[in-house]
């Protein structure tokens, strides 16, 4: 999804290409933000749900456009199901931002939970000789 918004104090508008990339004056810039390690990254379904609020389509219509069931879309929006690579490809096409964004969002969400839920205390850390 590309949104254009006017920056305060800047003469040219900026396009939001993805959640961490903008373009201004033909230059693409990455936005990096320091994440609070105690705050869970959003599930892709939360991001999709926010985006759908700006669109004039029903969730059923979006599911049909994506070629997935309405139930599957609702499960993703409710963060009960992950975004698979196949669904990420479909979302990337629908919103025009490619599958990578959706896969990175899902991976960040999953990794945050895994770091807190998986017991790794019995696993040693190897050091690479160098």
Automatic annotation (TrEMBL):
Presence of keyword DNA-binding: yes
UniProt keyword DNA-binding present: yes
Positions in coiled-coil regions: none
Keywords attached to this entry: DNA-binding
Domain HTH cro/C1-type: 47-102
InterPro entries in the cross-refs: Cro/C1-type_HTH, Lambda_DNA-bd_dom_sf, Toxin_antidote_HigA
Database matches in Pfam families: HTH_3
MF terms (GO), sorted A to Z: DNA binding
Protein name: Addiction module HigA family antidote
Native source organism of the sequence: Halomonas ventosae
């Amino acid at each position: 999804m590309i949104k254009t918004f006017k920056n305060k104090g800047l003469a040219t508008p900026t396009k939001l290409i993805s959640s961490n990339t903008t373009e201004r004056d033909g230059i693409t810039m990455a936005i990096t933000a320091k994440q609070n390690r105690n705050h869970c990254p959003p599930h892709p379904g939360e991001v999709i749900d926010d985006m759908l609020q700006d669109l004039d389509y029903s969730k059923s219509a979006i599911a049909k456009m994506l070629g997935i069931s309405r139930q599957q879309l609702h499960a993703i929006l409710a963060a009960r199901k992950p975004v698979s690579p196949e669904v990420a490809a479909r979302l990337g096409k629908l919103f025009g931002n490619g599958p990578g964004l959706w896969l990175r969002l899902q991976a960040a969400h999953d990794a945050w939970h895994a770091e807190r839920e998986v017991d790794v205390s019995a696993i040693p850390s190897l050091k690479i000789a160098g």
